[in-house]
Amino acid sequence: MDRAVPATNAYAFPLLVKQLWNAPLTRFADQEIVYRELRRYTYRELRARVGRLADALSKLGVAHGDAVGVMDWDSHRYLESFYAVPMMGVVLLTVNVRLSSEQILYTINHAGPKVLLVNSDFLPLLEEIAPKLETVEHFIWISDDDKALPAQAKCAGEYERLLADASPDFAFADFDENTRATTFYTTGTTGLPKGVYFSHRQLVLHTIATMAALCSPASGQRFHNGDVYMPITPMFHVHAWGMPYIALQLGVKQVYPGRYLPDSLIDLIVREQVTFSHCVPTILQMILSSPKAADVDLSRWKAVIGGSALPVGLAQAARARGIDVFGGYGMSETCPVLALAQVHPNLGEVSEERELAIRCKGGAPIPLVELRTVDADMGDVPEDGKTSGEVVARAPWLTQGYLDNADASEALWEGGYLHTQDIGNFDQGYLKITDRIKDVIKTGGEWVSSVQVEDLISQHPAVAETAVFAIKDERWGERPLALVVARAGQAVGEDEIKAHLSRYAEQGLISRYAVPARVLVVEAIEKTSVGKLNKKLLREKYSA
Questions:
Q1: Boundary (domain end) residue, out of 180, 197, 214
Q2: What is the pLDDT of residues 58-84, one digit of tens each?
Q3: 155-158, strands of its sheet edge to edge
Q4: Which candidate in 42, 45, 355, 447 is catalytic?
Q5: Active site residue 390
Q6: Statement: residue 150 has pLDDT above 80
Q7: Does 217 reside within a domain?
Q8: Contact call for residues 13 and 19 (beta carbons, < 8 A)
Q9: CATH of the domain at 90
Q10: Given 94, 182, 183, 186, which residue is catalytic?
Q11: Cα separations in angstroms, 232 against 259, 467, 520
């Protein structure tokens, strides 16, 4: 039998970020990129600017193996850095600008960028931390309003001027596909932020698999090449969930909103006819609660909700506006997408109530993802929709560890699976997250899911937002405390919420211990830097 012999000059085709440009530049060169009301240009021009940015960075001494950091709002410039920096073999550090100044300083020094791109909005912050930056040799200023460059010894120039003086024909070489492409930092709600990193191979595989999952439905809950895309997840956080890379592959019009202001987001959705976005529940709530949204047609808009569970009440409000809303599941360490809550045809005809319940789940695993729910001994728990266990995962794009943190990396991958620290259960192939391990409330000899109680409170018609967490109790060990934000123009009280939950307890849907000891009506609920409920802070604040 003849053996196949590869050609000596065959191209091995490493899975590099630069390969994501092959088809789009051929097929969609004239498609639009939009930044607010300030800039509009084509994919062809985007690719030329990617080359110019790489050339400008190279002239500043940036070379393979270095790092470059970005501090900007969601913009076309951020999109350009998503490509130019990794394509050079340089690590892209996406700085979480919503952390404290001390944490931002720590993350920059820990990642060690040679060059830092900084929006002029962050100059006061930079002036505070600049004397303590250990590796930054040059700053590149970014501005939307032609502000004068600050007097800074390390100032290399203004972004647009540097690109204008650079060549679009920078030659991006091949290198090992396992080269680190990106680094960013967790929100640091417990201790210092931890550096999460991903390789070129991981970004490319995540792009392909997530795109396959998003494009697969026959209708609804899908992202296709007829859509108009706008991220409402910060680009500093998990590469805006990797969606900009998918948007390029699909050749869709892309809209970048800058800062997240409700009225401007709504204006962009209307003016640019945006049809696909992704965000955390609090951002969706912010948009729906804006008076400006009251008379806007949102029936063409699709939104994937992640970061935390999609509450049924919020999903009902979105569906009432015609929004094709559905959940997704992942985390910083998973690049991030692991599952999507799309209603599969093999379920047959489902009631509206059942469909809504599915849309609010974490979802079904996307291609190449292995998800399990396990007990303390790593044994699988029954997939009966009731029995919960810790969610562990394997996929080719999961981070291999935390940057320069061996102990945390070993704990993350104990037993050969990535430990999410989430608790959930499977039902008909769909994962439902019932809580974070650290947020489960141990009361009256039972474990109460804070997520389930939040979900039920969210269904009260006067509730806009809620958070449930444990407070210490001498008799029961812990008891739930609920915070509630009322919808605009409505009122709600403690007794009303307790009565609402008691009805579910009487039906046996929740334990009587799940009815909170106290319900506080508040103006706002504290969030993390990426818009999630900050339960660590809430527990500390309300412990008394």
A1: 197
A2: 999 999 999 999 999 999 999 999 999
A3: 155-158, 138-142, 115-119, 67-71, 91-94, 180-185, 195-199
A4: 447
A5: no
A6: no
A7: no
A8: yes
A9: 3.40.50.12780
A10: 186
A11: 9, 22, 30
Burial of 370 (0-12, 13-18, 19+ CB in 10 A): exposed
| Token output for 124 | 């006061």
Q: How far apart are the C-alpha atoms of 308 and 311, rounded to whole Å?
A: 9
Establish whether 186 is a catalytic residue: yes
Is 513 within a domain? Answer: yes
DSSP 444-499: TTEEE-HHHHHHHHHTSTTEEEEEEEEEEETTTEEEEEEEEEEPTT----HHHHHH
Q: Match 């009260």 to its residue by tokens.
A: 460
* pLDDT tens, position by position, 465-499: 999 998 888 777 888 999 999 998 899 999 999 99
Which one of 135, 355, 383, 442 is the catalytic residue?
442
Structure tokens at 117: 């791109």
pLDDT at 190 exceeding the cut of 60: no
Domain count for the chain, please give it.
Answer: 2
In the chain, the largest separation of any two C-alpha atoms, in whole Å, equals: 81
Residue 302 to residue 230: CA distance in whole angstroms: 11
Write down the pTM of the prediction: 0.88
Domain range for 64: 39-197
Average pLDDT over residues 212-220: 95
Query: Is residue 402 situated within a structural domain?
Result: no
Active site residue 45: no
- The single residue of 333, 454, 465, 478 carrying the catalytic annotation is 333
Residue with tokens 């690109």: 163
What is the C-alpha R_g of the chain? 24
Q: Could you tell me if 401 and 412 are in contact, meaning their C-beta atoms sit under 8 angstroms apart?
A: yes
Rounded (5°) CA angle 147-150-152: 155
